[in-house]
Specification:
Immunoglobulin-like; alpha+beta; 3 domains; five-stranded antiparallel β-sheet
Length: 621
């Protein structure tokens, strides 16, 4: 028998809510009625895909499959000013893909229907759009997948400004679900512009509960996002994944001219080669100013407070992704300065244990590890030798004085204030969302003996780690040297062809460690000319000319020991690594090398029986 609702509802209600039960909770699916006065649901034990609501000759597909139809209610939407606006609550998002197609890749958009229950705090939402996977390691390695979705119409979601594009972060390896949130809240409090917001939602995908997600804005140019000129402004990221090393066939990236940073131009899209060259040249002006530690010139080109804030946030939360670097955004408006932000991707921070990182979820072990060290210019005591673009200004007294003052200004409250904000989210999550998410995605401690992570224990570890780290950094930052430090001049590698071989001389800055400012660029025509065609392979050689083995991270290259033989990282002095035949990254092991060292190593292009040796001589200053 059909369930029939007739004219008593005409022009009185704005929303229909289909109620279903899950884990002893009521989970209403909100559908906007659009003034329908009569609804006819076909027979059946459930509301199935394809059931329709009808009025006269018009049909509207009921877009959700519900296993058990508990009840249907009709409500009139409240005006926004009548709502509570408690942003800390955990809301509900129902997603139904067309024909319930599963989301199994990042490239293909799948049409779908989206419904959000604002729970009386914000307006409900229902509408159409598209959805697909997102992320890099989080998509490849983790069971709980992250998503991005694009609505057909710009809309406010849970009080956030109108837009089409949104992200659903899974936070799979973060048992607390608070690492990104704390970073976002702290960045906004520090004053970093365009910082993302957080709304926690429990997501049902095609009727199945898939856990707690962090709903947040997509980083993009737009009125309610990074509000700069859409044609003449530029939004970029320092990003190894999207840069030329790991995405060599993309046309939206480049190696920066001075510091050899992997850059990706996010917007505008579809830029001409000339425009990309112009962006690269303009960024090089800033790079050269930083390299020369010219404070006045840097200040005219870049918003120094945002630079200081992003550096301090990375050190405070020990986000080692700055070493790659990854997910570090910078933008420039037409006629404006470079500005850092918005901040993004913080689940590799908080002293994440990288051992077996695709399965591991361990954080908060050591609060004394440092990204920049006790003397950032020299990277003294640093666990990572990050690119000198981020460290060279510490050789400028005026910058160091400003940096120290900025930390002193925020130190008393940077933990206390922002942890108070986080606890408001935690209190709401403890009302059932944590339990349901853990039941859906249980995470075990490393080792066969390990039990499940306990959320309360991880939250307490996070709190204690942040408290101790803040106090520890107070002393470290106060001790940064303020003396002007000499600029180490490093020239670009020199490449010559002689007697059927290619010779390279390159200088390295000892304090640059793994991240040097230049790359070795080999002329492809030189190689093909000597080989008589394109090389089939590129191999590292030992000192005696025998083929060695690749111990570096790239497809080509190796770590070389003090005798010029390929060896493990622990015995290595210098390395070459690349995913490209003709553009090589290089660096030195800061624990094994010293200023004044000189190393000669060999690489070899191979085409069948024909070979061309590349002899590289490194001098470390």
């Amino acid at each position: 028998m059909s369930v029939l609702f007739v004219g008593v509802f005409a022009n009185a209600q704005e929303w229909m809510k289909i109620h279903r039960s899950y884990a002893n909770e009521d989970w209403p699916i909100s559908l906007q009625m659009d003034q329908f006065s009569e609804f006819d649901f076909a027979d059946g034990e459930t509301i199935l895909q394809g059931h329709t609501m009808t009025k006269d000759s018009t049909e509207m597909v009921v877009p959700f499959r519900v296993e058990v139809l508990d009840s249907i209610s009709f409500v009139k939407g409240l005006a926004d000013e009548e709502k509570g606006h408690n942003k800390y609550r955990v809301f509900t998002l129902h997603i139904k893909t067309e024909n319930e197609v599963p989301i199994v890749e990042k490239e293909t958009w799948i049409p779908g229907y989206f419904s959000i229950d604002g729970k009386g705090e914000y307006s409900d939402y229902s509408g159409t759009g598209r959805i697909r996977g997102r992320g890099n390691s989080s998509w490849l390695y983790y069971k709980k997948k992250p998503y991005k979705f694009k609505l057909d119409t710009k809309s406010k979601l849970l009080g956030l400004d109108k837009a089409k594009n949104w992200n659903l972060l899974s936070n799979y390896r973060d048992v607390t679900d608070m690492m990104n949130v704390f970073a976002f809240e702290t960045a906004r409090w520090m004053g970093l512009p365009n910082t993302n917001h957080t709304r926690f939602v429990e997501v049902f995908l095609n009727g199945d509960y898939v856990g707690v997600y962090q709903l947040t804005e997509k980083i993009e140019i737009g009125k309610n996002r990074v509000d700069i000129d859409e044609d003449e402004g530029v939004l970029m990221s320092f990003d190894k994944d999207d840069g030329p090393e790991l995405s060599p066939y993309n046309t939206d990236n480049f190696w920066s001219k001075v510091y050899s940073l992997p850059m990706c131009v996010k917007e505008p899209e579809d830029l001409s080669t000339a425009k990309m060259d112009s962006i690269r040249d303009d960024f090089a002006v800033l790079e050269n100013a930083i390299k020369e530690r010219d404070y006045a010139l840097v200040d005219s080109l870049m918003d120094i407070p945002s630079f200081i804030e992003i550096l301090q946030l990375h050190e405070f939360l020990y986000n080692v992704e700055i070493d790659a670097p990854r997910s570090l955004y910078i933008y420039k408006d037409k006629g404006g300065k470079y500005v850092f932000g918005p901040v993004w991707d913080w689940d590799a921070a908080y002293d994440f244990d990288w051992n077996n990182w695709t399965e591991n979820h361990t954080y908060f072990s050591n609060y004394k590890e440092l990204i920049y060290g006790t003397d950032p210019v020299k990277a003294t005591g640093a666990n990572y030798h990050i690119n000198k673009f981020f460290r060279d200004m510490f050789g400028c007294k005026e910058f160091v004085v400003q940096y120290k003052k900025a930390w002193t200004d925020v130190s008393d409250s940077i933990f206390v204030h922002n942890w108070e904000e986080i606890e408001k989210y935690i209190d709401e999550m403890k009302k059932g969302a944590y339990d349901r998410d853990v039941a859906a995605w249980p995470l075990k401690y490393p080792g066969w003996w390990g039990g499940n992570y306990v959320v309360d224990e991880e939250i307490e570890k996070m709190k204690t780690w942040l408290q101790k780290r803040k106090n520890y950094l107070d002393g470290i930052i106060a001790g940064y040297p303020e003396d002007e430090q000499e600029v180490v001049v490093i020239g670009a590698p020199v490449v010559t062809v002689k007697d059927g071989a290619i010779y390279v001389t390159a200088t390295m800055d000892f304090s640059g460690g793994y991240s040097q400012n230049y790359r070795i660029d080999i002329n492809e025509s030189d190689v093909t000319g000597l080989l008589g065609g394109r090389p089939y392979n590129l191999q590292p050689l030992n000192e005696d000319g025998s083929v060695g083995w690749n111990t570096a991270a790239g497809t080509y290259g190796a770590w070389f020991d003090e005798w010029g033989d390929t060896n493990d990282w622990g015995w290595g002095h210098v390395y070459i690594e690349s995913n490209d035949f003709y553009s090589w990254k290089y660096g030195c092991h800061p624990d094994n090398c010293h200023p004044g060292d000189k190393h000669t190593v060999k690489m070899q292009y191979q085409r069948g029986t024909k070979t061309v040796d590349v002899i590289v001589t490194f001098t470390i200053k």
